[in-house]
Structure formats: C-alpha cells, structure tokens
Design goal:
This protein is α+β, with helices and mostly antiparallel strands. The chain has 21 helices and twelve strands. Strand 4 and strand 5 form a beta hairpin. Helix 7 runs antiparallel to helix 8 and helix 9 crosses helix 13. The two termini are 40 Å apart.
C-alpha cells in the first residue's frame, strides 16, 4: 500500500477502510465534530464516541490528513499501530517480566504479528493500535509490586483515559484478562494495588466522564450492540489463518466468522508448544497464571454454544452468561481470543530466558540450537503474508474537481443513489475526497435502531429501500405512491441534490430516479437531480 498511497484498498476490509478514513477526515476537519458529527445521517448525525472513531489518533494526526488525505492517515495508523504494539510489548517484557532481550524480542514480535492481530489489520485500526495496553500492564505490575501509589496510579489513569479514545473494546478485553490473571494468582492482589487502581479510576473519570456521557446518553446514543452468541469455532484454535504462510483462505473461511475476524488461528504446532511449556513451567506462579488466563479467554471466545468444524453442538459455554452483563453485551465475544496473544508472547519470552540460562550451564546438549530451531519451526507457519489489496475505483470529477459546490447548499444533504449504507460505503470515500464539504443522507456507522438498540447504519426510509432493491437487480414499479413517498423522504433528509454515480446498474437506477424526481442532468461523471 505504501507504493501507491491513497489509491490502494484492502480487499478484505469490506467497507471498513472507507469508514475509518471518514473518521480520520472528521477528526481533522473540525474539533466541534469530535463527539458528534452531522456529516453522515443528516440531519440527526452520528455519535462519534459510540463508534470506533479512534479520536486518540485521528486528532493528533490531523496535520497528515490535511496535507496528504485520510487515506495516508489510515495507512500511517495501521503501520505505526502494529510497529508501536511490537515496540511497546518488547519494552515492557524486557523491563518487567524477563531479563533476556532475545526473549523479550520474541515475545514482543509475537504480540504484534500473531494471526489474530494481522486479521484485524485488514480493516480495524482500533484493534492494531494497541501500543498503550502494554504500558497499562506495566503500571499495574508496578502497583502490584508496591511501588509509588500516587505516581503509578496517576499515570495509569492517564493511560486508561487515552486508551478510551483509541478503542474501548480492546481496553475491556485487556481489563478482563488482568482480572482473570489476578484471580489465578491471588498473591499479586493487595490493598496497595486496589488503591492505585482507585486513583487511576478517578484520574481517568475526570478526563473521559463527559465524552462517555455523550456516548451513552447523548444524541444518537444506543443501549447495546447485541452481537449475540457469535464465537470462534473450536477448530480455529489449531488451524492456520488466511494471512499466514501455511494458511489457506478457503479453508480458513469455512470456519471463521469473516476474513477480518480470524481471532484465533494459532496453528497446531504453536498450540502443542504452549501445552508443553505450560507443563514445564507450571510450578512458576506467573507462568501458571498466564496459562490459566489464556485458557479462560479462549473459552470465553467460543460463544454461547460450542461449535466444532462448522457444526454447532448444544454444549453451553460461559459467554452465554457473561454476554448479558453491561458493556459485555456490546462486545463481540470471539475477540476474547486476542487476549491469548500477549499471554502466549510473555510465556514464550519466559521460556526463552529459562532455556538460555540452562544452555549457559549445559556442557553437551546444544539447547539454544534446539530451542530456537523449535521456535522457527513453530512460528514460521504463522508468519504473516502481505495483505491482499486492489486498486480503488476513480472518484467522479463531480466530487474530485468541486462541481458539487454548484448543488450542495448549507443545511442541505446530498442523497446518493443508492444511499450510503453499511453495504455501500463508496459515498463516504467520495465525500472525503470532496473535502467533507457536504453532509450525506443516511450512511455507514453505528447508531440507534427504531428503539435504542444498536444498529448498523441509519433507519432506512422507504425510498432508500426502493433504490437499494433496484441496485440489487430487482424490478420495482414506480407510481404516484412512490413519488409522494420520495418527496416526503427528501424533506426528511433536507436534501439539496440527488446524485447517481458510477454503478453496475446505473441505467436502471437513472430510470428510477427520473420516474421519482423528474429529468436529471449529467455532469462530472454523475447524474444529478437538484431539489
């Protein structure tokens, strides 16, 4: 992607690359839109805190967006996020968990480049920019060791607050893993640690209280997302993922949720090695707690009912109860497997240190050669391959050259045909390329449905559904009833212009628009109907 910045699109990202570029464009465009933007879903807008808007990077990286566009910012965040996660875990592991830099390097690299991390690099910067989480863990470790209460509690609070603006879901998963670790190793729990966490909570709350109030109670807020019982197939734990050297996209696709949610796929060699290390290091309290944490998080990731090789059983699992809890009811349970990544990375680092220490005292057996040969054999099959990309379609001159300024008036929306939606995010790309100069009717985001339950995209209007159906190839009759409804929907959207861009069924859509809105005009590579 770096060889063709802005023109390459991650093939398996679906519509998410367009969405995250839109988030970065909004963050750079106006500080007043940071928590709520009307650039989509006009006139109601989008609750930015209730979406994965990554404001913690979008706002600081605004100069890159201004100079080079949101596509470049998206690429910087993906690349820097993965690199930052590797560096962060290396720093923490080398200073707090092992004394051996080689082991720390192995652990840090695994934490950033393991298959669950790479699958999210296809679409989700909020799950790859995890460079703050290792430093949160480091402050918890320092508090558990009895170090400065105020200093570490205050810094921990700042880190937690910043992570809220990077991604709340990774923070909740990490917090859950830390709680499980503490329960598995109660000797680390102390009044000092709890006091430090309390101080951190007060510091974080003073920073994020208003943004979180906007998220849960502000305009376009919702109660929960309701992902239900979706979980990982048990077979994904030992299989190879689509983006691994030994992986096969077709085989992985049969047991994964989708190409961006291959949340396990550790490969059978690594699973066997982890079992061996668990037995070998079981008497070490830290290693034992890591193994228990990984096992618990893996089980939570399996969803409501156990599924094996695509066949669902009737065996209920813990996520059935946990998913009913507040906050957890909006989390995709399959992602709990991502917490296995740092636990395994730290376990590998501990094993490296112990092997190297033993090798220094060995006289006959080449332990180092044997160990690192085993590591290569285990990790090489899950080494990531380049993510598939394709060339983006060109942006119509109507948007790229500013022709839209003749039609888009203040306080009026642009209605794309078919309207922007979770299945049609290209209008978001056209909007960003036009400098975010106009709001869109409907769009791709998360907001309330007809009640307060979370919902992808806007609540569809009848005209939206009509145009979507025609875009899918369905034949629909258009008469006075449809024209009257279209007029009502245009008033609802406060529309200024209807725009039909390039589409595989452009002719059918043009005929439908002329039946609804009258004769159109062709300018800048698009058909338009001024309202």
């Amino acid at each position: 992607m770096w060889t063709d910045v802005g023109a390459s699109y991650l093939t398996n990202s679906g519509h998410d690359q367009n969405l995250f570029e839109w988030f970065f464009a909004v963050a750079a465009g106006s500080p007043g839109d940071a928590l709520h933007s009307t650039l989509q879903n006009f006139p109601f807008g989008v609750n930015m805190m209730a979406n994965t808007s990554v404001l913690g990077l979008g706002i600081p990286l605004s100069p890159i967006t201004w100079l080079f566009g949101p596509g470049t910012t998206f690429l910087v965040v993906l690349t820097g996020g993965v690199a930052g996660s590797a560096a962060g875990w290396y720093w923490v592991i080398s200073r707090y968990l092992v004394d051996n830099r080689i082991g720390a390097a192995v652990g840090g690299a695994f934490c950033a480049f393991a298959p669950p991390m790479i699958t999210h690099a296809t679409a989700h910067p909020n799950f790859t920019a995890l460079f703050v989480l290792p430093f949160i863990v480091a402050r918890v470790i320092r508090l558990a060791r009895g170090e400065s209460l105020l200093r570490n509690g205050f810094i921990l609070g700042l880190l937690v607050a910043y992570q809220v603006f990077l991604g709340e879901e990774p923070l909740l998963i990490a917090a859950t893993a830390l709680v499980v670790y503490g329960l598995a190793r109660p000797s680390v729990l102390s009044t000092h640690l709890l006091k430090g966490i309390g101080i951190a909570g007060l510091v974080a709350a003073s920073i994020v209280a208003y943004p979180l109030w906007q998220q849960f109670f502000g305009p376009q807020s919702y109660t929960s997302m309701g992902h239900g019982g979706a979980g990982n197939d048990l077979a994904t734990m030992t299989a190879f993922g689509s983006y691994s050297i030994a992986g096969d996209p077709d085989s992985a696709g049969r047991i994964s949720i989708n190409p961006t949610e291959e949340n396990a796929f550790f490969g059978w060699p690594l699973v066997i090695l982890v079992v061996v290390l668990a037995i070998w290091l079981w008497r070490v309290a830290a290693a034992r707690a890591l193994v228990i944490t990984a096992a618990v998080m893996a089980v939570l990731s399996l969803g409501w009912l156990l599924k094996v090789n695509g066949e669902e059983t009737w065996l209920p699992l813990p996520w059935l109860a946990v998913s009913q809890l507040p906050l957890y009811d909006s989390l995709l349970g399959a992602r709990f497997a991502m917490a296995c990544v740092p636990t395994i990375g730290i376990l590998l680092a501990m094993a490296c240190q112990r092997i190297i220490t033993l090798a220094d005292n060995a006289t006959h057996i080449p332990l180092r050669l044997l160990w690192f040969g085993t590591l290569v054999a285990v990790l090489l099959p899950i080494t990531p391959t380049p993510l598939p990309v394709h060339q983006r379609p060109g942006v119509p001159a109507y948007f790229a050259e500013g022709v839209w300024r003749d039609d888009a008036k203040p306080g009026r929306s642009v209605v794309m045909v078919p309207p922007a939606s979770p299945g049609n995010s290209e209008p978001l790309h056209w909007q960003t390329e036009a400098g975010m100069g106009f709001p869109l009717a409907e769009g791709y985001f998360v907001g309330p449905g007809r009640g307060r339950e979370g919902h992808y995209g806007a609540v569809r209007r009848p005209t939206s559904e009509l145009l979507d159906a025609i875009a899918r190839g369905e034949r629909r009759a258009i008469g006075p009833v449809q024209r009257d409804q279209a007029l009502a929907d245009l008033r609802f959207w406060r529309a200024g212009v209807v725009v039909l861009g390039p589409h595989e069924r452009q002719e059918q859509l043009r005929e439908a628009c002329e039946a609804l809105f009258g004769p159109g005009s062709y300018r800048g590579g698009v058909w338009t109907w001024r309202i």
